[in-house]
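User: Hey, my collaborator sent me this sequence without any context and asked if I could get a structure. I don't really work with proteins. Can you help?
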Amino acid sequence: PANFAARPWVLTQPPYYKDNLRANVESLNQALFLQDSFSPMTNLTFNVGGRLEMQKMSDLRGNAFMDLTNLAPRVSAIFDPTNDGRSRIYAHYGQYYEAVPMTLAARFFGGEGIVIRQNISPGDCPQDPKSWTGNGEFKNCQPLSMDPLNYNVSNNGANYAVQSRLKGQYNHEIVAGLEREVAEDLTVGLTYTRRWLGNILEDGTVDGTFILANPGNVPQSAVDDAQKAVDQLGKDAAAAPAGAEKDRANAALADAQSKVANLKNLKDAPKPERTYNALTLSANKRFSRNWLARASYTYSRLIGNYNGLYDADNDYFAPNGNNAYDTPDLFHNRRGPLANDRPHQARLDGYYTKEVGKGAVIAGLGFSARSGSPRNYNSALLPGQQLIFLLPRGSAGRTPTVTQLDAKLGYRRTLSPTSSVEAFIDFFNVLNQQTVLISDDDYSYDLAAAIVNGTTEDLKFAKNAFGAPLNKNPNYGRPLAYQMPFNARLALRLNF
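Assistant: No problem. I've predicted the 3D structure and written it out in structure-token form, which is a compact way to encode the shape of the chain:
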């Protein structure tokens, strides 16, 4: 087809086959950091700083597709209200930008494309293509028919479209607390932490043609920029002479119109949300008199509609290319307790050492407890893609609370003033608890749309995309992973 003529790297032209893709892409990262501290009083200190981060990414032809300049402010204060060195009140605010990983350039700007050919006949190749080893077996095949009715093209090896005025991905953080030494070597503290998203960098689409953008925060000026390009390309297409040149002009116009449609969709999409609030109470006995101990309890909530660079709901790691904004069908029922929301977490750790002979015996205990993770009702967007939240996120409750007791026993011998040798054994999950960690959340493998703001009572009326009642997965709710049983590690370590 004419619109492929300007893209000779795609596999819709000879040789129609390639064993691998070399994504020769580039990322240039630079950063400057400036900080100053000043103390207007002996018991009060302020820290003020800023970090300027610049990142430029280029595609496989060396053309820059992203050029970010991010300014991240930092400010903190520490105050000793008793002015005796035994207490402090502190607060900190900062912005933290993502250093976009190279995988973004390799996946979306490295020339990757997919051509799926239908109706392959046994006479096309003397050998089953599934058994190819990459040694050029395709050369023995007959020329492939590239009739557009006989194949599908995805991405076509072309770069993703990119939103103008693109901003980097970042989050805000506030940490505030107080701490007091209540006895010799023993401090207690209370800390509040809040983190929330300011912006994300993700791919998304409304028509199957993806664009790299700031979903939920696309500025109107970026839509206007794309519309101006459409207006100009429309004039160019109207003026182009008939034939290949007009076909190319019309193809460019169609791409620009798709970009406008996708930007409008992502502009109106739900704003990305990932908000963490936590309150931690802690006690810390510093190491003295041969022992130390630490204890903490945290109550926290992680609420939102976007898991982050790693999508724990689907065990999918594709930084800046996850599924959250891939289609408007995925916008529904997503807000709620995120995959790592564990409201209650507690830890207690202790360590003791005693000299024996020319060495020392070491003993330690550690106990932890945390809430289970949220459970969901999922269905399929496409076959094999369980991406739809059939009911609002977290509607299926939680997996059980997880607790674990660990222990350590060892012996350390000093060899010289700067070296020692240590033999020890670590015991994990001493009580051999085997709590369920992950349950099957795939309620149905049918193609089924989200029941917006639905409840479990609505499931009996749910239909799939073909109007038939949903087929429930018989394994739904059953365990998929358990806590690792009791195990131990015997080791010898040289410290120097």
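In plain terms: Residues 1-10 have pLDDT under 50 and may be disordered. You can pass these tokens on to your collaborator as they are.
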